[in-house]
Design brief:
- The protein has five helices and four strands.
- Strands 3-2-1-4 form a four-stranded parallel beta sheet, with helices on both faces.
- α2 crosses α5.
- The longest helix is centred in the N-terminal third of the chain and has 17 residues.
């Protein structure tokens, strides 16, 4: 990213963190992360409907998200930049990455091990 665009992008992300209760970056790099993202996209059956959710993904979606969920398709370069920032340091408790990467312990590994259901994971993430 060029410096001016990068600065605008980061300022936009800062504004998003102020506006939304939770911001999710969906990397969707496996079946579990795809399933969790799909549940989040249709989350109206879960959690507190007063929450404002922003779901970021480089994957195109044909349907409208559930009430309370804003979906924004982002470029893969933007997703990589956010992923890098997320792993560099924790910058907000409102920002979560949905990923199945094996390089760190994650909540999806508990689903894979059969210790949590996807609904329980979503409840935790939205809590």
């Amino acid at each position: 990213m060029e410096p001016k665009y990068e600065r605008e992008f980061l300022e936009g992300m800062s504004a998003d963190l102020e506006e939304y209760d939770k911001v999710f970056l969906a990397l969707e790099n496996g079946k579990l992360s795809e399933d969790l993202t799909e549940m989040l996209f249709h989350w109206e059956n879960f959690g507190d409907k007063r929450q404002k959710i922003l779901l970021l993904s480089s994957r195109k979606r044909e349907t409208e998200p559930a009430f309370g969920v804003t979906y924004r398709e982002i470029h893969e370069d933007e997703a990589r930049k956010l992923r890098k920032l997320y792993f560099l340091y924790e910058f907000s408790d409102r920002f979560c990455v949905i990923s199945e990467e094996k390089t760190f312990g994650g909540i999806l590994h508990l689903v894979e091990a059969g210790l949590l259901s996807m609904k329980e994971v979503l409840t935790v993430l939205l809590g």
